[in-house]
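Researcher: Structure prediction, please.
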Amino acid sequence: MGEQRAKIITVGIQKGGCGKTTTSGILAYFLSQDKNKVLVVDMDSQGNVTDLLTQEDVEYFEEKTVLEAFKDGSVEEYIYQVNDYLHVVPADDYLATLAKLLYTEMNYKNQNLALKEILEPVIYDYDYIIIDTPPSLSEPMVNAVCASDYVIVLAESSKWAFTAVPRFLETVEYAQAHVNPDLKVLGLLRTMNDTRRADSKAFVDLMEEYWPDICFDVVIKRKASIGRISMEGLFNNKELSSALEQYKLFYKELKERV
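Model: Predicted structure follows.
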């Protein structure tokens, strides 16, 4: 057991298709490659970060997921070891029932802090805990934000992502005001920038204009090798160095901010 508690980082925005899962997986991969002990908690019922990091079919984890951890009051029995440094608490479709269970069957004093509570038994076993979130404002998302030390806001270069950023920041402010005053915004990562399109560049610039204090300097451009990470994974991927090139700059910036 370590003497320091894990730093908990949530990757989120209330919109799909912004690269949250890819970013969560890559961040966890980089941290684990640097010999940090990393736990990834999948709080999205699609289970995509589970798939990405374990390369197992989500059905493999039936009744061995974060939902069962909520029922038991601890994640301890539901941790899947990818390797010595990288572990995952999986999710599957049944996580969609979390809200109903939290308010009817589970005995948590504060439903927004249930995830924080179930992570407590392992908080000193890891250097970092990375939480991947669903693309909507829901109990899994709110629990992730309320359990975290930091959030990374993800936004693709589009109008709908641009309008989703302030809504997500409102969720963060709610958590800061009501349950988690120490929560910090680590930064806004602009993703999926299509350099061939003027509108894409316009939204990259607009985000810089609106949120200059939190934008990461690096902007992740659209790249086929990044898109193929979902199929090829992170461990036996011939294109990995090409896919991770831009994310290395993001990782360097992130380490300076944490």
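Model: Residues 7-257 form a domain with the Rossmann fold fold (CATH 3.40.50.300).
Researcher: Thanks, that helps.
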